[in-house]
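Consider the following input, taken from an annotated entry for Aspartyl/glutamyl-tRNA(Asn/Gln) amidotransferase subunit B (Sphingomonas rubra).
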Amino acid sequence: MTDTSYRIKGRTGEWEVVIGLEVHAQVMSNAKLFSGSATAFGAEPNTQVSLVDAAMPGMLPVPNRECIRQAVRTGMAIQAQINRWSRFDRKNYFYADLPQGYQISQLYHPLVGEGHLDVSPDDKNPDVVKRIGIERIHVEQDAGKLMHDQHPTRSYVDLNRSGVALMEIVSRPDMASPAEAGAYLTKLRSILRYVGSCDGNMDQGSMRADVNVSVRKAGEPLGTRTETKNVNSVRFVMQAIEHEAKRQVAVLEDGGQIVQETRLFNPDTGATRSMRSKEDAHDYRYFPDPDLLPLELDEAFLEECRASLPELPDAKRARYEATGVSAYQAGVLTAEVESARWFDALLAAGAPGGQAANWVTSELFGALNRLGKGIDESPVTPMKAAELLTLIADGTLSGSLAKQVFEIMLETGQHPGVIVAERGLKQTSDTGAIEAVIAEVLEKNPNQLAQFRGGKEALFGFFVGQTMKAMGGKANPVVVNDLLKKALA
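Applying the prediction step yields:
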């Protein structure tokens, strides 16, 4: 289904937006696509450059099996066609950060063919699903990086990224709103991180998107598109689409024409600007790379890739829902692979799904957000969390006592059972003790008692609160409620 709710309202009526994304994802590998150079982020400039990367004469590329394996696994994760025969091409262009004068890529025969992603553009309505087609995934080498801020009159070149393996994941123009594009990019990033083929660190440049946008009136042919290059966050992709769509509508309604061009996004202003006119593919003079044989994949290699795939987000979400987790919470818990692994460990420790999901998404995530920590840095382990939830379930801890114990766990890392024993935080269900406190509370509050018996039933909550306060929050609220009803009858 298409998102019919998103339209650009212009002077001449409503306009549809047509969006496609080309995502460049850096393959997680200790070596580059065609050399043994390291790929670690943040290294000193030009310290991870082999003779192959620097295009020294006579240096021949050798494909990195792990990079091919990771791309195939990614294709399998998006239900794509894996092409047993594929080929590398040379894409010729001349730029200072491209030592060879060409980029080794795949155009005519990519490693991975058509696939798709099912996305939920609205977090609050996860059952509303849009299928986004994926045209292909091809493998290519990255270029280096020009550095313009190191010298007042010169630009420097850092070739550390030269030759790093990239997967270019090309969607079909199936998205019709910024929300759909954001959901697609978020889902794709999640799958890459589950598979382990890309770390998804958009702020470090290991995943970035080229955003293709055009506009048209309903029922009309596709308009001329622009491509906004190298956008490096989901939020920025959505902002770039919003701005570019409105810009195109304004140009067309003023009688102008959209130029097919490459644009850049400025995150400070939220606007795009023209970079260069768009070159057509034939300008790159693609031809088969003469130094590389075609890739031919056998069944044993494909089976190894297939067997190595983990449980993916959709399957994991369905499994969580089967344990009593709401669809929304299942989506939250599976969005990041670290959260899902933590929650899996909590379930494995015996915690019931529904109760565990409520606690993790409210108490744990709230505390970690307050502390500025990720879930993989949590001071509370899944085993200790399961123990805490057991103490709540069996009546040892009330909700308020559990919050106290949890705060102490965050500070000390202690087991909740130890904290309860050492600090006397156990909830009491001793009816005799609770009845004595209730009698004392009623005696101290004769005016409220008279008002309650006169028909002001809302004061029941007042008596509950006074009783719990008098018992230091350690009384079992269920028992307190039952005994108060009897005492006030």
